[in-house]
Each structure stands twice: as structure tokens, then as C-alpha cells.
Amino acid sequence: MRKKGFTLVELTIVVILIAILAALAIPQFTRVQERAKVSAAKAKLDLVRKLQGMYHTLTDVYTTDFGLLDDELPEANESRLDDADWDIEVDSADASSFTISATRERGQYVNDTVTIDQDGTMGGTHPLR
């Protein structure tokens, strides 16, 4: 009489196949997750760029201080710029131009940046930008 069940070899093969599939899927999932974080950072940078344009319309200069954006523009709620993954700051600003950067704070891409200027041109060192 034959017993029902799986042999050790069959179970080992299934475990190996699951491990191979996981090894292929996890890096892809991580990459997709990072792309989403980069997209969120780009959206925040574009928001600051638009706020800078509004501030420039009012004062004829750009600013490096988010607090001034909050004071002059009620729409510029600084808490919307808070992010655990990115440090967003205005690198330089004068009467005619500015550069804003988002620097990755943690994860595989720590210290990589995404930048935007007054014209909306994106740049930076992040490989997934």
C-alpha cells in the first residue's frame, strides 16, 4: 500500500523554485518602489518651483528660505514638503534664478539627488531620475 504525500526531493525542488522566483522579484519590486519615491520628490520639487515663481512675482527675487514662502503665500504649507526619505532645500537663489534639490536620506540611494531649476529642468545624480 502506497502512502499519500510528497517526497523530500519534491519539497526541496518546490522550495528552490520559490527561492529563485523571490530572488528575481525582490530587486524589481525595490526598483519600482524607488521610482515611486523619486516621482514623489519630483512632484514636491515642482511644487516649490511654482511657489518660487509666485514669490518672485510678489517680490522680484527668489528665496532660499521656505519660511518666507510660508509668510508670503498661504498656499505654501511647509509641512507638505516634509519627507522622511528626502531632504528638500533651495541650493541657490537670486533675482533671476534658483536651484532646488532633494537629497535621498536613506536606503540604497542615500545622498543621491534630484534637482530642478527655475525653468523646470530636472537633473541630479539619482540613477532613477
Explain what you see:
With 129 residues, this protein is α+β, with helices and mostly antiparallel strands. The protein has one domain (10-124). The chain has helices at 8-59, 66-72, and strands at residues 86-93, 98-104, 113-117, 122-124. The chain has a four-stranded antiparallel sheet with strand order 1-2-3-4, with helices on one face. The mean pLDDT is 88.
* Helical stretch tally: 2
**Intertermini distance:** 63 Å
* Largest sheet composition: 4 strands, antiparallel
Topology pattern, helix = H, strand = E: HHEEEE
Number of strands: 4
Proportion of residues in β-strands: 15-25%
Shape field? rod-shaped
| Total tally of structural domains | 1
Helix content: 40-55%
Low-confidence stretches: none
Structural class: alpha+beta
Give the arrangement of secondary structure elements.
Layout: H1 8-59, H2 66-72, E1 86-93, E2 98-104, E3 113-117, E4 122-124
Antiparallel strand pairs: 1-2, 2-3, 3-4
Q: What distinguishing features does this structure have?
A:
129 residues; single chain; 4-stranded antiparallel beta sheet; rod-shaped; alpha+beta; 2 helices; 4 strands
Provide a quick synopsis of the model:
With 129 residues, the chain is of the alpha+beta class. The protein has two helices and four strands.
